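In the previous chapter we treated chains in isolation. Here, by contrast, the input contains two separate entities that must be folded as one system, with a combined length of 517 residues.
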Amino acid sequence: MRQEQSLRTNDGAEDVIRQYATMVYRLAFARSGTKDDADEIFQEVFFRYLKNQPVFESEEHCKAWLIRVTINCSRKLWSSAWRRRVLLVEEDLAFESKETADLYHELQKLPAKYRQVIHLYYYEDLKAEQIGKILNRKPATIRTQLTRARAMLRDFMKEEDDV
Amino acid sequence: MFKETYRRLNDIIQPDKALVAAVLAGGQRRKRGAKQPFVRLKPALIAAAICLCLVLTVPVLAASVEPVYELMYLVSPSVAQFFVPVQKSDTNNGIKMEVVSADIRGDTARIYITMQDLIGDRVDETIDLYDSYDIRLPFDGTGFCGKVGYDPNTRTETFLITIKTDGQKIAGKKITFSVGMFLSDKHVYDDIQIPVDLCTVSQNPKTQTVEVFGGGGEDFEKVIDLHGRGQAQAMVPGDEEASFPVKGIDLTGVGYVDGKLHVQMQMKNSLDNSNHGYFYLKDADGNRVLSRYSFSFRQMKEQEGQISYCEDVFDVPYEELSAYQLYGYFVTSQKKTEGGWRVTFSPESQQSKD
């Protein structure tokens, strides 16, 4: 739950930024696919955090709030008319292997909403129920999205990756 | 395995250090009273300003005896004109939850909910719906629920729910808001000094290997591999420190483990009360030293239910420890009210009736 009152000190806010910077950035990148967009989403998420100074009751609560806001900011960025007219440029990333480079390019073919559930499930280790709660969707919807995403990434999937 | 490949792909994705530094500098600017935390590449969206106006306006509206929607017209007609009354409620265990009014525009909805204790004082200004609230929509979307004000005369708290869909129109669709339980009688212990003499802390406390279920901090990922073994060396919990001033949380250990200062707190049945907090050190000038990381683990004790522990780990050499005092920030809740309240409503049908 988001609260408008601020009980934390700014020192606490800085701690939260340090702690969750990488998580927010990677999720922003997973959704947007480019570092430029991830940079912008990253700033917007923590801008909102510093503006609102929400008070969290637990680490899980804080994490869930930041995930929600990151996804909301990603959506807002993508929905801008300017953004819709811009073609994605090839990202200059130092992939550690051909396999990860291929995976990156396959992921870019997926809808953003599939990329986000893939990220939350396989990287943040959240269960479908937890993702559903954070994104306010039914767990069945999340499982369906994961199944469809997995089907589209079938060249990278093995049986043990089943949801 | 896909998971490992995906993890390797993400390992190269990091926010630029300058970017993180700019955001942290924004926090410092905010601390010094600047209105804008930091200057971003693009200006803030107008929508954010609108939301902020609502946040600033509505607490004034809600903290009164009058119904929320009437007050809106009195204080801020320009905001209130968009809200239409809903007034659907559910009462259980002496607690009434009411959907008061809603403003539905395109793919965005703002809905005011009140919770009132009809027979006691369980609803107070510290009420926390915790993770027990649920917003059900017949489409994909995200929702937030935030507190906006408390009326002590009627023991009523007002909440604002904001829902945003993927572009689908909300009007005419059924929305269900439910709350399973809530916490109240919350106490915040901010910047309290912990009466512990750091000069006497053990340099060789008894330790144990524990399974970590959570944690955070700058060094957390470096030290604890949650995706591997997920284990940490923790102090064996000692006796509860009698002078620890927080009701609902206990101090159960301070000592050095592998050259790092560990400070351990114990929380009983934390899933039921959400008690939490963290320690930090302060030097004579009031400068704070935060932990490098913290980790949580659980233990089951006979007859006492579930006990969880959190250890904050500081990178301060023992020789320098006498220059610091131990402080902390803690939040506890003393009341948990269970019931189960649910209201389903259709904003458009309400609008058409009016």
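Helices of chain B lie at 2-11, 17-31, 46-62, 68-75, 77-80, 220-223, 270-273, 347-353. Chain B has a mean pLDDT of 78. Compare these points with the single-chain example from earlier in the chapter.
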